[in-house]
Amino acid sequence: MATVEGLLSQSKVVIFTMATCSRSTQGVPYLAVDLDQRGDGQEIQRGLQRLAQQRDVPFVFVDGRLIGGLEKIQQAHRDRTLDKLLSMGQETYDYDLVVIGGEPGGLAVAKEAAAYGKRVLVLDPVAPAPAGTTWGLGGSRGHVTCASRKLMQQAALLGQAVRDSGKFGWEREERVSHNWSDMTETLKRRLGSLRESRDLRDDRVSYLNTSGELVGPHTVKVTDTKGKETCHSAAAFVIATGGRPRYPGIPGDREYCVTGEDLLQLPRCPGRTLVVGGSGAGLECAGFLCDLGLEVTVMVRSVLLPGLDRKMAQKIENHMFVHGVSFLHRFAPTKVEQVQEGGSARLRVTAVSADGTETYEGEFDTVLLAIGRDACTHNIGLDCVGVRYNLKSGKIPVDEEDRTNVRHVFALGEAQEGRWGLRPAAVQAGRLLARRLYAGHSTKCDYTNVPVTVFTPMEYAACGLSEESANHKYGEDNIEVYHSYYWPLEWTLPARDKNSCYAKVICHIPDSERVVGVHVMGPNAGEVIQGFAVAVRCGLTKDQLDATIGIHPVCAEVLTTLTVTQRSSDALAVRGNC
Amino acid sequence: MAAFCKGRYRCKRQLFQQILTRGLTGKYDYDLVVIGGGSGGLACSKEAAQFGKKVAVLDYVDPTPKGTKWGLGGTCVNVGCIPKKLMHQSALLGAAVKDARKYGWNIPDPITHDWPTMAEAVQNHVRSLNWGHRVQLQDKKVKYFNLKGSLVDEHTIRGVSKAGKETLLTAANIVIATGGRPKYPVNIPGAVEHCITSDDIFWLRESPGKTLVVGASYVGLECAGFLTGIGLDTTIMVRSIALRGFDQQMANLVTDYMESYGTKFAWKCVPKKVEKLSSGALQVTWEDIGSRREEQDTFDTVLWAVGRAPETKMLNLEKVGVALNKESGKVIVAADEATSVPHIYAIGDIGEGRPELTPTAIKAGKLLARRLFSASRELMNYDSVPTTVFTPLEYGCVGLSEEEAEKRHGKDGIEVYHAFYKPLEFTVAERDASQCYIKVVCLREGDQRILGLHFTGPNAGEVTQGFALGFRCGATYLHLLDTVGIHPTCAEEVTKLHINKRSGLDATVTGC
């Protein structure tokens, strides 16, 4: 039956028929299912026969409702009710749009749709994370996560600022220490007061603080806190349930480990910490803890910062390594157990190398999991309407219009497979989706040029393609990479990290050196890249980049004075080796 | 030539011979001589040397009335951008140390600022840059003379050393890049004897103590800002408005922030005289323009920031026929930096109507060298130069001010989008963000092309740079909206602007 429902949701009009039968449709798009061409045709036919109480094909469905067979249609055609039947839909649903999940993308599409006069319902449940962290209401959780990433980085940077200040004439006693609970107290208080900015909420949208489950192609079942169930129908659905940190499914992971989301909730200093996974969140936490003076090890199974530029990831690793973070490559944990050691509990982690030949055992005070995030799409009835999704991660494959394989179901934000799921991108995508659905626009969200920032102590920001994907897309010969190290003026007095800040611009040579990727590693990289993201949207070329006058003396200036190509410096390096 | 003959006879023979040989062979000592070793001059000379040309740079620093002098590199390196940004950073770090406590760092009291430590570190860095410039010139085979240059004729330069020894150089092309120096006021007794300018402040060995800054140019505001930031009692005296030429709404935000930050402002006041008391303190007498009352106070240091004047007087320019603007004293230049005399060019602050900014001088210098010595015809584009004022709350902008846009396109021809915002890191530190503001001035018609972008807040320079580029690519308001923001940054707010001034809606922070 799930198969039939899946088929029904793919088109407004679905006709179950035989390949041998002729058909005419009066210009209405339809999906014809040829029962004699399918392996499960007979089974479907039997089911339909029982449902329709009729023996012969065709079985005609409009909007998932059975109309009947040939006779009914001919009858309707004679009564001139066929047109009405076909135009049925909009007014028969309770809502034009139901958004499942309160992620910012979902709120944005809801708000925009409401602005076009559509009836919109947002279902926004909050289920606590295994370690018990809950963040206020709804979509604010994502907001808080972003904010806490930035504030953790700020705490680390201020530690650095205190160390630098001596060189700039500030005199104080040498002993400076960090108090974990003082910090978390303030940060929690601040984060608690943060709310999803009001501008994503709208009076014209109905909100329900409950979970929703799809039970039919156009029906969602809502269960409120008292367990009462109600059903709502809608013409279209948007899945914006967001994501949760992934657990590796090994003994002890949920009992003893924490995730980035829980880190600031820890009542005591995390102490010696193992970070499992090389995701952005993992490296951010590792860098932060290391800068607070803790001993940090990062265990990575495959690569650091998957999906981002490899060379930049390598530079970030180098920088973190120099600053005291240890890396354990090609290992994955298999077991986490609690051991008592002189009255204090520690966690013993057992890990196996990727090739299975080596084992590692280490003891830590805290084990932080950062192996990626899963979409919260498991109990919202996706199977019921035939939406395809990744069973492991819960993420839903979507096309460039954010549409799932089911025509009237869309997914935004972290629910999408293969995209970053960044908050601002989801908001943008949500707005554009509503405009495509309800205002006849055709603009799609440009996911390629979404700027990304990793808030490691050495911040990294990028916009556009990585070097690998540029090479892959345009061919290595058609790509010119301009790059340069730079030394922020502020770092000269403390004589800090001379060759670690780095900028790289990737150009597509045949297209008048159009800039297809900008990468910056250094202080305030995020602030730097934002404006460049606008320029990339405007079709920035290397010529224009060179013609732009720098602001002196700031870091961003370096991007306007890039002259050295990677090709030439690689060649130089080779010659140097001779 | 006639002018010359009236002058120093002892050079006459030597010069005559040179001119003679030149006339016969068509050769000069150098392909290019640059007078002035600042940002523009150095960039131009190095670029020219890249093309295999014979190049010389003359640089000489006249000591200030206080006796301060410095090395190669010009204003930016020695008494401008570099030391200013470093001292600004020192002030920011002072604030950061206070913030750090909120983030759990235990820093024992007391925390005090020691001027000599900072000044020495800054000065050492500047000296290392001086040295770096020397080395670069050597590497690029540019001849450096520590001589004070002036023109003899359109192909001859006289260099005078500190000891008074003269050298004559001939060149096929001459570039004047002597820049400018801070002005002292006229008719204020004691101004030159007792007071300093921005040429001295970075080279003081001891803390300037209680300071009066006269003038609210960006130089004045920046100096007063970092002095306040490192804990000194600082007052700014302003005759009319702050940051003339900049968007005035933004200027007000900058000064409002400074006032709440602790800088005192004496608005609508003009200084009358400065006297040195026997205690060593400086007694300043000024007049309040409104009440016409005279007031007095004592300061340890008085710093003039009343504008800059071009260094053209000693160059003998008019004798050679290089046309100057009578009022400003600056050299009149064409789009290709040419002066009224063939083969003589002027770049940087000394050119009439040129922005007084390092990156423009560098770029103009490089482009000029390319035009002179390679096939390039590319001209410098002086439009929409981005700039940043490093006041305690930084202010970055590119393009037109709201006033200027209104003047050019009419009030109905422009749409102004604006928003106040709160930087995330301010929330925990409980810092006041009421002056963090973004304004984008657009044409009202069509896609709403951006005419000007203004930003006050932390890291304004870093934020503005990329938008300056977007500006160059013809960015419109729609482009801004179409760009995905980076969360959570301050720059992100620019892409989220949705309230225009005409609507009269509240642009203050909603949410957090």
Describe this structure in words.
The complex is a heterodimer of chains A (578) and B (512). Chain A is of the alpha/beta class and 578 residues long. In chain A, strands 5, 6, 9, 10, 11, 12 and 23 form a 7-stranded mixed beta sheet that branches. A 5-stranded parallel beta sheet of chain A has the order 14-21-15-16-17. Chain B has 512 residues and is α/β, with parallel strands linked by helices. Chain B has 16 helices and 24 strands. Chain B has helices spanning 2-6, 12-25, 39-50, 74-79, 81-102, 115-139, 191-194, 198-201, 218-229, 248-261, 317-320, 358-373, 402-409, 424-429, 460-472, 477-482, and strands at 30-35, 55-58, 105-106, 112-113, 142-145, 148-153, 156-160, 166-176, 180-182, 196-197, 211-214, 234-238, 264-267, 269-276, 282-288, 294-299, 301-304, 308-310, 344-346, 387-389, 395-399, 414-420, 437-443, 450-456. The model of chain B is unreliable at 1-10 (pLDDT under 50). Strand 7 (170-171) of chain A pairs antiparallel with strand 4 of chain B, so a sheet runs across the interface.
Structural class of chain B: alpha/beta
- Please state the overall shape of chain B, judged from the principal axes of the Cα atoms: globular
Number of strands of chain B: 24
Question: What proportion of the residues of chain B is helical, as a percent range?
Answer: 25-40%
- Beta-strand portion of chain A reads 25-35%
What is the molecular shape of chain A? globular
Average pLDDT rating of chain A: 85
Q: Summarize the amount of helix of chain A as a percent range.
A: 25-40%
Q: How many helix segments of chain A? A: 18
Q: How many strands, which pairing sense, and closed or not: the largest β-sheet of chain A? A: 7 strands, mixed
Report, as a whole number of angstroms, the end-to-end distance of chain A: 70 Å
Q: Tell me the total number of β-strands of chain A.
A: 28
What is the number of helices of chain B?
A: 16
Low-confidence stretches of chain B: 1-10
Oligomer: heterodimer
Percent strand of chain B equals 15-25%
Q: Based on helices, strands and strand pairing, what is the structural class of chain A?
A: alpha/beta
Cα-atom radius of gyration of chain B:
25 Å
Question: How far apart are the termini of chain B?
Answer: 72 Å
Largest Cβ-defined interface: A-B, 87 and 83 residues
